[in-house]
Amino acid sequence: MVFHDQPDPKEREFDRSLRPGSFAEFVGQQQIRDNLGIAIQAARGRREPLDHVLLCGPPGLGKTTLAHLIAAGMGTDLVITSGPALGAPKDLAGTLTRLQRDQVLFIDEIHRLPKVLEEYLYSAMEDHAIDVVLDPGPSGRSVRLGVQPFTLVGATTREGLLTAAFRSRFGIVERLEPYPTTDIEQILLRAAVRLQVTLEPAAAHLCAERSRGTPRMALRILRRVRDLAQVQQKPAIDAGTAQQGLERLRIDALGLEEVDRKLLRALIQRGDAVGLKTLAAMVDEAEDTLEDVLEPHLIRCGLLARTPRGRVATAAAYRHLGLPEPPGPRPGELPFAP
Ligand SMILES: Nc1ncnc2c1ncn2[C@@H]1O[C@H](COP(=O)(O)OP(=O)(O)OP(=O)(O)O)[C@@H](O)[C@H]1O
Ligand SMILES: [Mg+2]
Questions:
Q1: Which CATH class is domain 258-321?
Q2: Could you tell me the pTM of the whole model?
Q3: Among this protein's residues, is 63 annotated catalytic?
């Protein structure tokens, strides 16, 4: 399993316990916070529900957290569901018709909402009503059910999979980017206070640097180094403990884990561009995980390039793994090479 993907239930509980309770505690992403803050204040002033919000970005950057903060900001409850959980029209119809006035409906992984349900959602979002088909067929009857004015907050790691029609129905679209190291340090230091452990600034810096700009990953690293400090009976998490913890987790200076290095080594061994399917099979990961979780960071670090012929390891990847660079330009640097 990839360390920074798919948290297990225990980790989810840990995440929840450290989740910021207000916009003030939400570190970084200043512009998104400002935009949402203004929209919330204005909607409240008009006594209207907030416009529908779409939150896009890689896993672990704070989409679910923001959904909670939006509901809290509007002074209402958050009703939580997800694309995969809404399998049939009756599931979505039930959820929509049960909503109370001004409530916030959070649909996580909204790109995985079955296409047939999009129409329902559109009419609920725009007309505050849905037409439920009673008996399908040419003489099909349907009833119109009312839906209370509500705010839809959708979260997605794959914005590209949403149709333009769907995206355009959200009045507010915000994209989360990985956090700068200083923001992650702040998140870690705050978490340490909540966990009642002493985290030395140098240790916070080290953990932050290797967390791919992702709060969830940073908090998981903190959890592991906290264990280490406790077992070693250290009064504080210092740089030495953090370093040791990161080594144990085999997270390197660029935040790469074993699976990332395996992927790069597989590419290098091939010595040629590789398609997504083949690469997924080579490293035994799902194609989705590869595209959503592994590749973006490798691309950001300049270790992997996508070319029209497939994925290639760059010269920097050879250097990072301590391998001798092959002579001549790498395919990654000549994307249109024959
Ligand atoms: N800006 C932030 N400030 C402080 N803590 C944060 C921030 N963003 C995220 N976190 C912490 O990181 C954890 C993961 O964030 P969250 O669950 O909101 O991510 P997500 O984007 O919904 O991820 P996924 O796509 O996997 O659902 C949260 O529990 C929270 O504790
Ligand atoms: Mg989430």
A1: mainly alpha
A2: 0.88
A3: yes
